[in-house]
């Protein structure tokens, strides 16, 4: 038990670091740990390593809103929060925004755990009867999201192109003999890491003085949005490849919450809840339906051959610890960061992140004797594709086609 607790705290520590460091995707961090797993498993149990990964994912999900809101550097799960969050920062309300996303994420984890018995009864049944038709559902929902996240014909065409191209990359990577840990690391680093930071290099926006006094009340509307955030994670549980950004569209429609100045607080609370609860439910889905529906969950499913109720209880326990500590860390770090935000050199920090991520990819490629030319091709291709949404003003959630399109192909071929 002591090893599990230590692993939980170390996961929180690393998740905090990766969360507040702009551009480091949680799946990139997980891929690094998974790459080291053959060595780590020689003196650690698979359960300990998986608790580390789950705590890393939970803390990262809560802390990644800090650079997203304060710097405007998004991850896939925080992309929808950029506009309302940055508006609050420009109004001097950074501390309020950080508290909203922290409370939304914490409350959603509690809701997810409380509603677990309901999902445990309903989800396996729905998943079993929907399997033959799941590829149709995934395809239809993907097209709906392309339509919902775009407002002009040109944007919808570009969104569809991004979805299809990322999907083809995902399918190509999945059928190559290259170790999945290396290919996934390079793919996510390019799509969500390097591309985001390279684009942000030209961002020299000025952040005004932030209001040090915060008054935040949890009313009925806030509780409703926390509940929607927590339960939407369950809805995503049987949609392989769908992440918080896609879930955010579902949550918006359920709560009738729009991204505008009047609803910024409720919008942020709902999206942060979806982002954090999705991390936990992606692990729960392994037990309920045998479907690892996130990068971290895929790594965990590789490490644990038979996922039992024992593992589920351990992950819930670790998640409660992780989200509780991460809540406090988010408030402390967010408050301090909001005070020094005007003094940071964005370009130097971005260049450091680029060098670090590229170095890690090539270090592990050399260690595991991967084809450097192929990994280089993945990095160049995915980074180039990852830049398109930025320059076209699109949501980067369309790049989750890298997971969704292969899932559509797999489910189609499975029943035809």
Notes on the structure:
This protein is an all-alpha fold and about 425 residues long. The chain contains 18 helices and no strands. Helix 3 packs antiparallel against helix 13 and helix 8 runs antiparallel to helix 18 (about 400-415).
Please tell me what the overall shape is: globular
The major pleated sheet works out as:
none
Number of helices: 18
- Percent in strands: under 5%
Structural class: mainly alpha
In short:
The chain is mainly α and 416 residues long. The protein has helices at residues 2-20, 26-40, 46-63, 65-71, 82-90, 94-114, 116-130, 134-148, 153-174, 180-200, 220-235, 244-255, 264-289, 295-303, 309-340, 346-367, 372-392, 401-414.
Which key terms come to mind for this protein?
416 residues, mainly alpha, 18 helices, 75% helix
């Amino acid at each position: 038990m002591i090893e599990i607790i230590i692993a939980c705290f170390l996961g929180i520590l690393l998740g905090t670091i990766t969360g507040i460091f702009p551009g480091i995707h949680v799946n990139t961090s997980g891929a690094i740990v998974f790459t080291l797993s053959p060595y780590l498993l020689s003196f650690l149990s698979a359960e300990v390593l998986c608790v580390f990964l789950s705590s890393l994912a939970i803390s990262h999900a809560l802390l990644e809103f800090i650079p997203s809101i304060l710097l405007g550097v998004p991850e896939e799960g925080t992309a929808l929060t950029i506009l309302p969050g940055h508006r609050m920062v420009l109004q001097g309300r950074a501390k309020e925004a950080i508290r909203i996303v922290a409370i939304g994420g914490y409350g959603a984890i509690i809701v997810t755990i409380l509603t677990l018995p309901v999902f445990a009864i309903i989800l396996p049944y729905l998943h079993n009867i929907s399997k033959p038709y799941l590829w149709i559902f995934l395809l239809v929902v993907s097209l709906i999201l392309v339509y919902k996240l775009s407002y002009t014909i040109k944007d919808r065409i570009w969104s569809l192109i991004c979805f299809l191209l990322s999907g083809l990359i995902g399918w190509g990577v999945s059928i190559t003999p290259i170790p999945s840990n290396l290919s996934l690391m390079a793919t996510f680093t390019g799509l969500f890491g390097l591309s985001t930071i390279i684009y942000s290099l030209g961002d020299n926006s000025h952040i005004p003085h932030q209001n040090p006094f915060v008054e935040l009340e949890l009313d009925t509307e806030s509780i409703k949005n926390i509940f929607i955030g927590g339960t939407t994670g369950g809805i995503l549980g049987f949609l392989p490849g769908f992440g918080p950004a896609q879930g955010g569209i579902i949550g918006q429609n359920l709560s009738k919450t729009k991204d505008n100045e009047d609803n910024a607080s409720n919008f942020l609370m709902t999206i942060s809840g979806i982002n954090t609860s999705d991390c936990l439910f992606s692990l729960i889905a392994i037990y309920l339906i045998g479907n690892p529906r996130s990068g971290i969950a895929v790594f965990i499913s590789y490490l644990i051959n038979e996922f039992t109720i024992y593992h589920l209880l351990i992950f819930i326990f670790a998640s409660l610890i992780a989200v509780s500590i991460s809540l406090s860390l988010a408030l402390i770090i967010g408050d301090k960061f909001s005070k020094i935000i005007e003094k940071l050199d964005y370009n130097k920090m971005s260049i450091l992140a680029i060098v670090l991520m590229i170095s890690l990819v090539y270090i592990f490629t050399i260690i595991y004797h991967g084809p450097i030319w192929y990994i280089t091709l993945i990095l160049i291709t995915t980074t180039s594709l990852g830049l398109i949404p930025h320059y076209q003003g699109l949501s980067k959630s369309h790049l989750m086609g890298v997971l969704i399109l292969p899932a559509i192909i797999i489910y189609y071929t499975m029943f035809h």
